[in-house]
Amino acid sequence: MTAPATRASTTLAWLDGTLEGNGLASTSTAGAEAVAIDAAGEGGVFLAGRAASEIGINRLQVANSTGLPFADSGSVISALSFWADNLSVRAADGGPVTLSISFSFEGSYVGPCCDAANPSSTFGNAYFLAAPGRFLDIGQGEEDGPISFTTSLGSAVLRGQATAVPGGLLSVASLCDGDDGEDGCDPFSASATYTLDFTIGSDEDFWLAGYFFVGDLAQGESVDAFHSARLLGISIDPGAVLTSESGRIVRRADGSYGLPAAIPEPATWAMMILGFGLVGMRMRRTVFLSYQ
């Protein structure tokens, strides 16, 4: 287990790629700060990606040599966006409180998946979860090391679909219906909402998290979720009060809780698809001119 950072983090954006045998990596634990990989090789091969995370929002967009034939070659890219917030609820009568927490996801996978001739190596999923205790820290001790996290109930390595959360779960929702715990959903195209429903004692701590990951995206594939996975809102029993440690989840006029008023998406995210296309076009033009 990696030792906790000096300043605890509750967000993580991570990209890791290999282009023609050269390793590329980028990690950020500064909320809302995007990490990026943009690299080009020979013959139209390229890796491009952006990932960002802030309390309540996951953003992720990656591509591997789109427009070229599918190949599980020496060039792959993986990505992760994670956030967590510590919450507690208090009922006026001191009794248990029932919560209903809703999330949205918009995104798509594009690739030649999946048959015997094109056995995609890609795996991925988006999860929304609530767990008992307090979330303390997340980080990566070494560039190529595992991403680990610590809660008041224990520590674990974040292994995507195989993660065992210390203390168990209060509730969880997954992008992949019938997830087998290994392959996730591939391909996918989703614009849907998900809900966590559970009851917890008054003044008991719990943490809420969202994470979206893609592993080993191969040549000819792309994942576009710049529209993001995000927290929509939290409804609780009348008279109960919810507290967010980050301060990002606030009470609304209707008595529910959620993120502050939406801020327009950064232009860089809206330009990502165009950017991927321009990289591919530039590479193809370079190859064409080299034969003149």
What characteristics describe this protein?
mainly beta, 50% strand, elongated, 6-stranded antiparallel beta sheet, 7-stranded antiparallel beta sheet, disordered C terminus, 292 residues, Ice-binding protein C-terminal domain-containing protein, 2 helices, single chain
Tell me what you see in this structure:
With 292 residues, the chain is mainly beta. The chain has one domain (11-290). Helix content is 8%, strand content 50%. The protein has two helices and 18 strands. The protein has helices at residues 267-270, 272-290; strands at residues 11-19, 22-28, 35-40, 46-54, 57-64, 76-90, 97-110, 123-132, 135-140, 147-151, 154-157, 171-174, 189-200, 205-217, 221-236, 241-244, 250-251, 257-258. The strands form four sheets. Strands 1, 2, 6, 8, 12, 14 and 16 form a seven-stranded antiparallel sheet that branches. The chain has a six-stranded antiparallel sheet with strand order 3-4-5-15-7-13, covered by helices on one side. A three-stranded antiparallel sheet has the order 9-10-11, with no helix packed on it. Strand 3 and strand 4 (46-54) form a beta hairpin. It is elongated. Residues 1-7 and 266-292 have low confidence and may be disordered.
